[in-house]
What does this fold into?
Amino acid sequence: MQNLILYVLALVLSFPLAFIVASLTKDEKPIYKKYFPYFLVVIGVLALVFYFLNNLVEALTLTFMFLVVLIWRFM
It folds into this structure.
């Protein structure tokens, strides 16, 4: 139960982290905007696969990465 709370806390922290990353990498954004939609699809599918396989650590890690990339892309 404590691990799940830590995982959810890490997911919540993905939002401020994405804002920080977006502000630090404004000059690199146009370069990577064309690649990130493909990364989002791959990361999202992998996260769903790991959720169905009950590998919670991997699924939540991929969900964290998905949220950071998604927020960074639209900032």
